[in-house]
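Q&A log
Question type: sequence-to-structure
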Amino acid sequence: MSKILILVGPSGTGKTTMARELLQQVPHARMIPSHTTRNPRETDLPGEYVYIDQETFEHYVHTDLFLWHVTRGATSYGTMRDDVFLFCDEGKHAIGIMILVPSRVHHLEVAVRGQYREEVEIIPIFIHPPEETIIRERLRARGEAEAEIETRLQLEKDWHEEARATSPAFKFIQGGRDLSELPRDVANVRLILGA
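Response status: OK
Response body:
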């Protein structure tokens, strides 16, 4: 059975860092790419994003190419239906990794279940953030402006409750305060993943 691991959590919780470690440690794991209108970051993973302009993004929305899409602040994100279905067609040992917002997990599950029924397992994991001061430090280190940090914190403050209310049921792990806790966090995710 193929598996889609969905990492969810507020900005700065270490989703990309977690995905990077899983890609290195878990055989047959790969990113299922999302499209975004934001600029690339040095920390972005190979295959994590396809970078497009807003006009192209809107065209994809209007031609119904996205399985899901969302705009957060001035940045839009979406995953192509074909990218998800191509992954699902890869076979029973494939493990796809996606980074999503909680509200889009159900959309993904409905589409995958409609096409593949029980052949693909959806595994959403919510990463609880460490203290807000640590998150702020991480976002500043990424070059985020103070106004953007405030906007993100406000937009994402209810994600934990949203994840609790979403189907399929999320697994919850505590995100690390620093990289020394990453091995523990990765081990927890691998245990949930069965890898």
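Response note: Helices lie at 15-25, 54-62, 81-88, 105-116, 132-141, 146-156, 159-165, 182-193.
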